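2024-03-11 09:14:02 INFO worker-7 job=invfold-0412 stage=load source=structure_tokens
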């Protein structure tokens, strides 16, 4: 009887082992990566808003702004599971990295120069078979006020496809607009542009590169400097509607009076410019979410500490939090669940699961409650200053 049970267990585990070995032996995307990236985005983001749509069939070359490190890839893969990515080779060299990352590897100049002709040929073949390929023309990510220079790789790939097939793939630009890139349970808007129209005049490669650059500038945002960007992003969080359109409205300039007042406002007060919640519900949710945070404290602490130590810049903070949090959750949560069952039986497991979900789901209400509390503790003079800035942020020429 025992041998029979063991053989059944082995039969059940065999397909799972084969699935995982296949997933980790290939650099390109598999069902594992599609599932993992969708789960990561469902947990990490409070809401993913997609404006526009992508073609469901045919060769597609997606050119995307690059803002938040590899999290951009997780996000786009969850939005369009058919996508394959051109990815930095260093991210798929080791098997444990391939647990999270997938794509056609290319070597970037900053990682060591190499011949990418084989990778380009693989990308071309993938498109010729009707695939959907995502390229980040900036090459690396940045959360700064400007786009980084756009490289010509995507344009060269489109030209090679046209020379091989006599037509261009559908080329679609995408912009990514994060509410708070490094924070858990923030929101993001994915702006999908119209398929690009390429001029038939002049050199073909130049025309393709110009079309791609123009498309990315249209779906992305550019500001004069960090101060301009900070004001625009606070304004976008303060008013309702599409975040992309709110940011675009602030691209031109910042009124001198607003800029002057903003610079005089202390950093802590700038976070209170977003409206504090009028409802007491966020404050009431705090006690309900506390058990979930306490029971899963090792997961939250691991994500926070490792991101602070290893993140080389703000554009990879979210990535390190996700990697560290995922690894910690995989180790801690089964132990916590088993401990709950051992201590309180099935009811303990249910209580642990509910408290964990509440901790995750209440993250934004708790942050709103913290803003409310800070607003209540602020001095009358500080409140007046913030109200005046709020009024300037909603002026008709920008709101």
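2024-03-11 09:14:09 INFO worker-7 stage=emit residues=399
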């Amino acid at each position: 009887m025992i041998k029979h049970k063991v053989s059944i267990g082995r039969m059940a585990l065999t397909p799972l082992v084969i699935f995982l070995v296949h997933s980790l032996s290939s650099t390109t995307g598999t069902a594992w990566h599609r599932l993992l990236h969708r789960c990561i985005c469902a947990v990490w983001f409070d809401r993913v808003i997609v404006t526009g749509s992508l073609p469901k069939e045919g060769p597609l070359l997606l050119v995307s702004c690059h803002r938040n490190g590899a999290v951009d890839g997780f996000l786009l893969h969850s939005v369009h599971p058919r996508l394959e990515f051109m990815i930095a080779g260093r991210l798929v060299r080791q098997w444990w990295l391939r647990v999270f990352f997938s794509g056609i590897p290319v070597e970037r100049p900053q990682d060591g120069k190499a011949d990418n002709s084989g990778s380009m040929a693989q990308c071309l073949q993938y498109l010729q078979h009707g695939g959907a390929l995502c390229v980040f023309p900036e090459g690396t990510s940045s959360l700064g006020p400007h786009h980084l220079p756009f490289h010509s790789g995507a344009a060269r790939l489109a030209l090679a496809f046209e020379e091989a097939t006599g037509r261009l793939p559908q080329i679609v630009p995408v912009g990514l607009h994060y509410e708070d890139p490094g924070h858990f349970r923030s929101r993001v808007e994915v702006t999908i542009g119209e398929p690009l129209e390429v001029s038939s005049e002049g050199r073909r490669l130049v025309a393709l590169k110009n079309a791609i650059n123009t498309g990315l500038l249209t779906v992305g945002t550019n500001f004069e400097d960090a101060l301009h960007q900070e004001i625009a992003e606070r304004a976008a969080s303060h008013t309702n509607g599409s975040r992309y359109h709110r940011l675009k409205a602030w691209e031109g300039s910042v009124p001198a009076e607003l800029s002057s007042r903003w610079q005089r406002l202390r950093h802590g007060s700038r976070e209170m410019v977003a409206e504090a919640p009028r409802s007491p519900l966020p404050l009431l949710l705090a006690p309900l979410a506390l058990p979930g945070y306490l029971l899963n404290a090792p997961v939250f602490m691991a994500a926070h500490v490792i991101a602070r130590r290893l993140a080389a810049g703000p554009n990879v903070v979210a990535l390190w939090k996700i990697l560290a949090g995922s690894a910690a959750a995989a180790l801690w949560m089964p132990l916590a669940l088993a401990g709950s069952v051992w201590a309180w039986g099935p009811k303990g497991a249910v209580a642990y699961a509910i408290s964990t979900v509440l901790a995750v789901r209440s993250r934004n209400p708790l942050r709103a409650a913290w803003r409310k509390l800070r607003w209540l503790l602020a001095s009358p003079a500080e409140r007046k200053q913030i109200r005046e800035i709020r009024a300037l942020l909603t002026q008709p020429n920008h709101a």
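2024-03-11 09:14:09 INFO worker-7 stage=report msg="Residues 1-6 have pLDDT under 50 and may be disordered."
2024-03-11 09:14:10 INFO worker-7 job finished
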